[in-house]
Amino acid sequence: MSRRKKHASHANHERWLVSYADFITLLFAFFVVMFASSQVDKRKVGKIALAIQVAFQSMGIFEASNTRAALAASEPMPFSNVQMVENAARTEALGRVVSSPTGGPIPAGSNPAQSQMQAELERVLSHEINRGLVNVRRTREGMVISLQEVGFFDSGSATLRPGADEVLARIANILRNRPESLRVEGHTDDVPIHNANFASNWELSTARATRIVELLISRYGVSPWRLSAAGYAEYRPVATNTTPEGRALNRRVDIVVLAPAALPSADSPGGLATHHSPPPHS
After folding, report:
1. What is the pLDDT of residues 154-200, one digit of tens each?
2. Average pLDDT rounded to a whole number, residues 7-30
């Protein structure tokens, strides 16, 4: 009886193509899902950015801009247009907060009482304003009275220069009996400081603000319940730090007369009461 000779089975070397095809299919599906998600996100961001811009313009916070980004409900807004809207809003907001040292814009909806206070301050400080030693401007937070270092402090010092207290007295005479809270802010340029009295710009800016607060309380009779002090070092500039003139403008102490809208409300979630009651007598 003859035996059949078994033929060796032929090995299939192309089975890897099945796994490879499955992998490519899954990869394609993954990128399709990612692309679809990104289009939805762009559309939402575009709608939100445009809605914020329109709302702020209607409130008078941002002026109307020639930059307009078309909005289609069925098509996603190009991301370049989203950035254009956001950058325009950010630039306008920065122009409001960091205003020119020669006098910032008056925001919409300002009250007559602050307008009268600004006019009175500019009248009694006209000599110092003309010499560039004092600047009075309006922001959304309220009235800002900037005391430049060159007229009030020696470099690297928190001691008032001779004659500076007389200017401070004129300011205090106007602010003493007003109801607004006052925040005194110290600012420096970005040149590092390290001397026997101060190890950093943080300490110098805070010491100058605290010194003004102490004088307003002890010498000029301003209620301490209305006052607060803050030091910002070089991190709130009003001009560039790349020129001597810009650095000189940044070295200042700001007395901010806070508008009522800038104060936290006691009725708001997490808000603080704006009225401070004196401690009970023992």
Report:
1. 989 999 998 899 999 999 999 998 999 999 999 999 999 878 889 99
2. 75
Residue 228 bridge partners (DSSP): 183
Contact 77, 71 (CB under 8 A): yes
Residue 114 phi/psi, 5° resolution?
A: -70, -35
Rounded CA separation 191/200 (Å): 10
Q: Where are the domains of the chain?
A: 17-97, 112-262
Question: pLDDT at position 55, please?
Answer: 61
Task: Answer whether residue 108 shows pLDDT above 60.
Answer: no
The CATH number of domain 112-262 is 2.102.10.10: no
Indicate whether 208 pLDDT > 90.
yes
Task: Return the DSSP state at 178.
Answer: -
Tokens 């007229």 correspond to 151
The closest of 83, 5, 80 to 49, measured between CA atoms, is: 83
Query: Quick one: 188 exposed, middle or buried, by C-beta within 10 A (0-12, 13-18, 19+)?
Result: buried
Burial zone of 19 (CB within 10 Å; 0-12 exposed, 13-18 middle, 19+ buried): exposed
Q: Which of 259, 254, 275, 223 is nearest to 115 (CA)?
A: 259
**Residue 258 phi, psi dihedral angles, 5° rounding:** -70, 130
- 239 and 99 Cβ atoms separated by less than 8 Å: no
